Amino acid sequence: MAFRGGAAPFRSSDGLSTRQVGNSDEIQLRIDPMHADLDDEIIGLTSQVRRLKNVAQEINSEAKLQSDFVDQLVRHQLNLL
After folding, report:
1. pTM of this prediction?
2. What residue ranges are annotated as transmembrane (predicted)?
3. Distances (CA, A) of 32 to 10, 17, 36
4. What is the mean pLDDT of residues 50-76?
């Protein structure tokens, strides 16, 4: 089975699974309460979301630094002309 971006959907050993929906910004969770400790799953998911937000912030910071650097190079080159 092929998955978007080459990644398989999240599957928890404790009863949570995801599936794609029409909008790529959405996710649906199916929870099997008979085989899950929901508190632990929620804490784990919260931790993953926090890490993803931190990574996104780092990417944004790096992109801004690179953009500023390129802008400086362009200004420098224009000043040389």
Report:
1. 0.52
2. none
3. 14, 9, 6
4. 96
